[in-house]
Amino acid sequence: GAVVSQHPSRVICKSGTSVKIECRSLDFQATTMFWYRQFPKQSLMLMATSNEGSKATYEQGVEKDKFLINHASLTLSTLTVTSAHPEDSSFYICSVSLTGPNYGYTFGSGTRLTVV
Amino acid sequence: SQQGEEDPQALSIQEGENATMNCSYKTSINNLQWYRQNSGRGLVHLILIRSNEREKHSGRLRVTLDTSKKSSSLLITASRAADTASYFCATSPGRRALTFGSGTRLQVQP
């Protein structure tokens, strides 16, 4: 089946530094990827939609200059958290919608970001 | 934004018992999906039910959909300790991003 590889799985960084999270579709091409954020014991909230070859679409309240998304190829989307602060500590997950009559979505394994 | 609410928020049962969780949503849908998330991990697609379907089965899973009430339920029969996870319903317009319910944390005691 379709596999999305996300890494790193965990990262700890200092306040003020930047962190890059990668999401790769391993055996298919993905023109669109979705980035979610999940705080502890809460649901997933959509941050942005990553579009190959064009600018990402951000949800209301998500700072595009803080959460930089690059989707330069059909198999790779990256999310960079710039000038990270402790309140950015969260679980970040990427996702791709699948094609076919019974399409669902496949998810990366997530990245646990801790900003200290 | 979240599509709707799930209840219960948390559920603790014994192995062998059935677990039922409910989901309500707000907008019209083409389909509704259920996902499972183990602690600190990504999501796994469990089952998709289309808006013109009322019930669907997959192994020990049974999903119902009531579009008039904008609600769905997920039943896990004969639960196992390995079913311990969070369960989310989700909807999307076409192939746009999913909107998730608030989730149910299921604990199955061995």
What is this structure, in a nutshell?
Chain A is mainly beta.
Features:
heterodimer, A: 116 residues, mainly beta, 7-stranded mixed beta sheet, 11 strands, B: 110 residues, 5-stranded antiparallel beta sheet, 54% strand
Any low-confidence stretches of chain B, pLDDT <50, length ≥5? Answer: none
Question: Cα-atom Rg of chain B, whole angstroms?
Answer: 13 Å
The helicity of chain A comes to: under 10%
Name the chain pair whose interface involves the most residues. A-B, 25 and 24 residues
Describe this protein's structure.
The complex is a heterodimer of chains A (116) and B (110). Chain A is mostly beta strands. Helix content of chain A is 0%, strand content 53%. Chain A contains no helices and 11 strands. In chain A, the strands form 2 sheets. In chain A, strands 2, 4, 5, 6, 9, 10 and 11 form a 7-stranded mixed beta sheet that branches. By secondary structure, chain B is an all-beta fold. Helices cover 0% and strands 54% of the residues of chain B. Chain B has no helices and 11 strands. Chain B starts with 5 loop residues before the first strand and ends with a strand. The chains are: A mainly beta (116), B mainly beta (110). The interface between A and B is medium-sized, with 25 and 24 residues.
